[in-house]
Design goal:
Length: 330
């Protein structure tokens, strides 16, 4: 049994006065404190899949667009650092190259990820014991990542080709990639993308959710927007640093085009280590940690705020529906 904590039992005693000073007693009861990796669902109501999916789409899409627009220049610098070989010079012009086309993919990808993650998380939390909530968060993050990858990968391929100056516009990039490399060219580096993004999504969301659980247990209240943002920044920065080598590999495979310099993930790793040494696998770690840390702050802050607004609107709608169903008295 974990450490004990005191909570207030709000059940009324036999005295009917509502005021504490008039004699209402509040009974203290010892209960075991929940472990850091546990969460209580609070309700036994079934998961409203369609509503959760819809709200996740809206919240995820909103958060994704805000983050991408705000931090695109940092992402461009990170990509150019990773793409550079040897002592290649980093160009700092056109840092917003490809933003408009990228947003076309980011919006549905972010919406799809959160739209799948939220109902999957809620379902898994109901199925698994409370002490396995971390498993639920990891699994839901991976499921959301697989679903979103169908949109994310072509978006990422086009974005990174634009960021490295291979094409001048997103439509031209799509047309030329398909004509030269076939439709599969839009999914270049798909395996390395999953190798990076599945653990990234799973770890980031798990760290974020678990930190929120621990913080809420300690604070004994719902978290404020700045607190959600701070937790999101920490989760993003840590996860970004851990997955930087995977991101370097993904970038190299996606931007190689029809040259096919690398035959696959393992060949890419071996070539980088042989020609550039181990430090090359950490190229762009500074901009990446900065980008994802700030991005995590904005993303999770906007995500939680949007979810809260949607929940409040739902409660207001339910209240209005109940009021309209109540028969008026003469």
């Amino acid at each position: 049994m974990g450490p004990l904590t005191l909570t207030i039992n709000s059940k009324n005693s036999s005295m009917s006065s509502p005021d504490v000073s008039n004699g209402k007693s509040q009974r203290l009861q010892l209960i075991p404190k929940k472990s850091f990796a546990s969460i209580s669902s609070g309700e036994d109501k079934p998961v409203d899949f369609l509503r959760t999916l819809f709200e996740g789409f809206i919240a995820g899409g909103t958060a994704g667009v805000v983050v991408e627009t705000a931090l695109y220049p940092i992402d461009t610098i990170k990509t150019r650092l990773q793409a550079a070989r040897g002592g290649g010079k980093i160009v700092l012009q056109g840092l917003y190259s490809g933003l408009a086309g990228n947003l076309v993919g980011v919006l549905p990808a972010s919406a799809l990820f959160v739209g799948v993650y939220e109902p999957a998380k809620k379902k898994l939390l109901k199925m698994l014991p409370e002490n396995l909530s971390a498993v639920a968060h990891l699994t839901a993050g991976a499921i959301g990542g697989v679903a979103a990858s169908l949109i994310r990968v072509p978006t990422e391929v086009v974005k990174q080709r634009l960021q490295t100056g291979q094409f001048s516009s997103a439509p031209d990039a799509v047309r030329l990639i398909v004509s030269k490399e076939g439709f599969k060219g839009l999914y270049a580096g798909y395996g390395s993308f999953l190798l990076r993004d599945l653990p990234f999504d799973a770890i980031q969301f798990c760290i974020y959710e678990q930190l929120r659980i621990g913080y809420k247990l300690a604070a004994r209240r719902d978290l404020h927007d700045p607190e959600n943002a701070a937790i999101g920044a920490f989760a993003g920065a840590i996860t970004g640093a851990i997955t930087t080598p995977l991101d370097v590999i993904k970038t190299r495979l996606m931007i190689q085009g029809s040259a096919n310099q690398y035959k696959g993930i393992f060949d890419c790793v071996q070539t980088i280590l042989k020609e550039e040494g181990p430090p090359a696998l950490l190229k762009g770690i500074g901009p990446r940690v900065l980008w994802i840390g700030i991005g995590g702050s904005i993303f999770f802050g906007v995500l939680e705020r949007t979810k809260k607004i949607l929940a409040e609107r739902q409660l207001l709608q339910q209240s209005n529906d109940q009021s309209s169903d109540t028969p008026k008295q003469d």
